[in-house]
């Protein structure tokens, strides 16, 4: 009896470990074992495609050897065009060597990471895979007139139904993927915002040289912008106009983050995020929270929800939000007064602690505001449901994790009895 229970416990542990490691793979480590693919591996890192591949499961990488990469690089494409081309070589499905030779009806159409970026138009983000007689397998970009001009060479690495790395004979030609792609410094970020429902915010940003300069300084190194839609920002403009010049700049910078955050990153990571306005003691931060597909940004004043993506292409991402997110440094939370505690309770209650985060340094320094200019303005009385402290949410998450661990421990003890 005891042996059976121990066997069950081992099975539970094995299943638990399998669950923990089932999506763990590192494409650059897999490719590092194969020197003939070193250039391809290098550009997966340089274009930041490697982290995107590692975050996904059920994926196939069509690797190119050094000779094939040399032919591609001879055309002197920009690094951003190279990223588009290589993302066309990442299939969002699993194709091991065995599956390639067992394709139903001999042909399959696979979506790629290029198609998932939203840059590809029509069928340009799809790859045709055809199993010919005699074991030959051809690959071709769907926007290339159906021409299958690249062929399966060998299986490089396979972690079944998770990631497959296979070598193909040459790069897949695609007019759309190979089109010249502007670098981030050439992107007109305010133009993108203006054309997609954030014109009022974009015009306000353009009218503030200090804030606009901060955005431009961060474009090449990585920038994520959360722009409020026109209607809520129009309604907010009277409050914005009452701010001092320095507060206006900080307020506008508050909607930018000095690192690139893809939507998948935001959906998988919660926590405190510094902004372009963060500078030493002036935190100007907010908390990212996600539940399923919904991502919200929260301060101690109010909460805004991400409603759309305008661009999500390393190193720049711009998202729309449904409200004007307000920093606690400039606006007071409209909190209802809490009942006064009994004298003995007040004496025993621990004092709240504020968590400190290390803010990213900026190239320019801000003058320290005077005590008068630091006093927050009154916030609007709407959104009372948004007044939730960040510490409470962190405690809830931590409690849920502890509950899961305790539950697993009880289950193990039960089988050991």
From TrEMBL:
Oxidoreductase is among the record's keywords: no
Role of this protein: May be a cell surface adhesion protein.
FAS1 domain location: 24-172, 185-325
One GO BP annotation of this record: root development
Keywords: Acyltransferase, Cell membrane, Glycoprotein, GPI-anchor, Lipoprotein, Membrane, Proteoglycan, Repeat, Signal, Transferase
Protein name: Fasciclin-like arabinogalactan 11
Designated gene of the protein: fla-11
A GO CC term assigned to this protein in UniProt: side of membrane
Subcellular location: Cell membrane
Molecular function (Gene Ontology), one example: leukotriene C4 gamma-glutamyl transferase activity
Chief localization: membrane
């Amino acid at each position: 009896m005891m042996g059976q229970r121990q066997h069950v416990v081992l099975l539970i542990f094995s299943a638990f470990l399998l669950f923990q490691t089932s999506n763990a793979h590192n494409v650059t480590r897999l490719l590092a074992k194969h020197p003939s693919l070193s250039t391809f591996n290098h550009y997966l890192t340089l274009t930041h495609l490697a982290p995107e591949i590692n975050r996904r499961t059920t994926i196939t990488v069509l690797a190119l050897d050094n000779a094939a990469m040399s032919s591609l690089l001879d055309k002197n494409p920009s690094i951003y065009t190279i990223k588009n081309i290589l993302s066309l070589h990442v299939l969002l499905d699993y194709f091991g060597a065995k599956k390639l030779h067992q394709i139903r009806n001999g042909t399959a159409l696979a979506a790629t990471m290029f198609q998932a970026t939203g840059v590809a138009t029509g069928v340009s983000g799809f790859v045709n895979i055809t199993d010919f007689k005699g074991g030959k397998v051809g690959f071709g970009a769907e926007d290339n007139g159906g021409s299958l001009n690249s062929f399966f060479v060998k299986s490089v690495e396979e972690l079944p139904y998770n990631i497959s790395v296979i070598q193909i004979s040459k790069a897949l030609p695609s007019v759309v993927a190979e089109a010249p792609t502007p670098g981030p410094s050439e992107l007109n970020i305010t133009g993108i915002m203006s054309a997609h429902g954030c014109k009022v915010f974009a015009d306000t940003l353009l009218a503030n040289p200090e804030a606009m300069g901060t955005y431009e300084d961060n474009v090449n190194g990585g920038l994520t912008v959360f722009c409020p839609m026109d209607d809520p920002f129009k309604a907010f403009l009277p409050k914005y106009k009452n701010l001092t010049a320095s507060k206006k700049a900080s307020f506008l910078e508050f909607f930018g983050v000095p690192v690139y955050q893809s939507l998948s990153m935001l959906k998988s990571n919660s926590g405190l995020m510094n902004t372009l306005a963060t500078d030493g003691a002036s935190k100007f931060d907010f908390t990212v929270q996600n539940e399923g597909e919904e991502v919200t940004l929260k301060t101690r004043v109010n909460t805004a929800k991400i409603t759309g993506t305008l661009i999500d292409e390393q190193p720049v991402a711009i998202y729309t939000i449904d409200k004007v997110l307000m920093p606690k440094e400039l606006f007071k939370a409209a909190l209802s007064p809490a009942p006064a505690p009994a004298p003995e309770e007040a004496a025993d209650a621990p004092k709240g602690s504020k968590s400190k985060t290390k803010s990213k340094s900026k190239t320019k320094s801000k003058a320290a505001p005077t005590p008068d200019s630091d006093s927050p303005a009154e916030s609007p009385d709407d959104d009372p449901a948004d007044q939730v402290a960040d510490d409470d949410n962190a405690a809830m998450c931590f409690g849920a994790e502890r509950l899961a661990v305790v539950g697993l421990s009880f289950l193990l003890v039960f089988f050991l009895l």
